[in-house]
Design brief:
globular; binds phenylalanine; mainly alpha; Hydantoin permease
């Protein structure tokens, strides 16, 4: 199916790549953290509902834009536009998503760098190095070094293109990620204290389900997790063959994404209670569970320390898992801007990858040098403002600008009977009315 611009060579290649983009620090760090700070299972329940009923339809809209356009986000959306005003709007939405992906990568690379340095610490201890502590202590030099290393890994993969870069590496790394995750869960749930953690994770406090803060966090988490509003799923959609059934492919990717978030919760929340059984403090002064970066970088390492030499292996496996998850996501973030530069400005792929990758690295460096203010600022700008707005505009584009008949023709490719399906009865209404309204309401509320 590969055309000259490249494409996924197989169905499984697309699934691994799109799931690789979706499954990232958002699933393994963000989701358990949000669950811990939003009262456990109630959050899980709301998240599941929003992921399938709000994020999946928006995800389908982005995949369809890409598969129809067979091009980067801007060109794809402009192909759907008829008037000059629509073309301008298409540029705004498509390019906005590309900028959003670049901004996310700039801070994501810093977090990913931390994961890599925490993965190296156990190796340094095993080798008897005196400097092991350096890898887990905050310093500008450490942050710059590992962010740069991570960015070069991302650049290395994206330079090789869709089939030999994104697809090949996603197919290698995603199975490793799943095996690591499942092995860690099996180990952790056998330890003292895990049962209490499972209880906190799986027994919902229904009274919290309609709390506005919980709804906002769950929606933000679902959109971040499916990489929406960043042009990433548009470009991945553009690399799928016209013979594939997009409706099921999209559902499969959503299912993998949600399942891995759920599994990450099965690992992290019980691990917190195991840590408590070992004497580690897991509740903050106000009685809530410790979350955010302290959970990953203080509570869990304290747990690994308490396990003796076994803890070295568990800690290593955990932070390698995090690093892999981050890498399969970061490559998708870089592909958005790179495909734009290659297709719209005729730049050779390797040059575009290097230039854009280095540009984003400069931004990461500025973040590292002003970490206390910039990290939060860029993350909020991109994920709380950029992503929901662009995702909403994509739905509006598909629902209001793209002709219904054209949409149907596009979905029919690979799914001839779609007209009689439940999907076609519900989804158009979703993208036209429900998704934009719900995203808008939650967004305004979050301000
Ligand atoms: N979905 C990724 C995660 O959960 C993050 C991501 C956001 C990837 C935007 C691509 C684009 O970590």
């Amino acid at each position: 199916m590969s055309v000259s611009r490249g494409g996924f060579s197989s169905r499984i290649g697309f699934i691994m790549a799109a799931a690789g983009s979706a499954v990232g620090l958002g699933n393994i760090w963000g989701f358990p953290t949000q669950t811990a700070s939003n009262g456990g299972a109630a959050f899980v329940l709301v998240y599941l509902v929003l992921a399938f009923f709000l994020a999946y339809p928006a995800f389908m809209a982005e995949l369809l834009i890409g598969r129809f356009g067979q091009a980067n986000a801007v060109t794809s959306m402009q192909k759907m536009s008829r008037t000059a005003a629509q073309k301008k709007f298409a540029f705004f939405v498509g390019f906005g998503g590309i900028i959003c992906a670049a901004l996310i990568l700039s801070f994501y690379g810093v977090f990913a760098g931390w994961m890599m340095s925490f993965a190296i610490e156990p190796i340094a201890i095993l080798l008897g190095s005196d400097s092991a502590q350096w890898f887990v202590s905050q310093s500008i030099f450490r942050n710059l070094l590992f962010t740069t290393l991570f960015m070069f890994l991302t650049i290395f993969i994206i330079r090789s293109g869709v089939e030999n870069g994104i697809e090949k590496w996603s197919k290698r790394l995603m199975p490793v990620l799943i095996v690591l995750l499942v092995s860690l869960i099996i180990y952790v749930v056998t330890l003292d204290g895990a049962a209490e953690g499972l209880n906190a994770y799986l027994n919902p406090d229904f009274s919290r389900i309609f709390e506005p803060d919980l709804l906002i966090s769950a929606m933000g988490q679902a959109f971040f997790s499916l990489s929406l509003g960043t042009s990433v799923m548009i470009i991945y959609g553009s690399y799928i063959s016209k013979e594939e059934n997009l409706v099921t492919l999209g559902a499969q990717v959503t299912l993998i994404d949600v399942s891995i978030a759920f599994l990450a919760g099965l690992l992290v929340i019980p691990a917190m209670y195991v840590a408590q059984a070992q004497g580690v403090v897991i509740f903050a002064e106000d009685g809530s569970l410790i979350s955010g970066s302290s959970l990953i970088f203080t509570v869990l390492p304290a747990l690994f320390d308490s396990m003796g030499s076994m803890g070295l292996f568990v800690g290593f496996a955990f932070f390698i898992l995090m690093s892999i998850a981050a890498l399969t996501s970061s490559i998708s973030m870089l592909e958005g801007p790179v495909s734009y530069a290659v297709e719209r400005h005729d730049m050779p792929r390797s040059k575009a990858t290097l230039l854009i990758g280095l540009g984003i690295l400069v931004l990461s460096t500025i973040i590292v040098l002003n970490i206390s203010f910039m990290l939060d600022f860029v993350a909020t700008l991109a994920t709380q403002y950029g992503q929901p707005i662009i995702a909403m505009l994509c739905c509006i584009f598909v629902g209001w600008i793209w002709h219904r008949n054209e949409i149907l023709t596009e979905i029919k490719k690979g799914y001839g009977e779609v007209e009689n399906s439940l999907f076609w009865k519900i989804w158009p209404i979703y993208t036209k009315f429900i998704c934009p309204t719900a995203i808008g309401v939650v967004f305004i509320h979050s301000l």
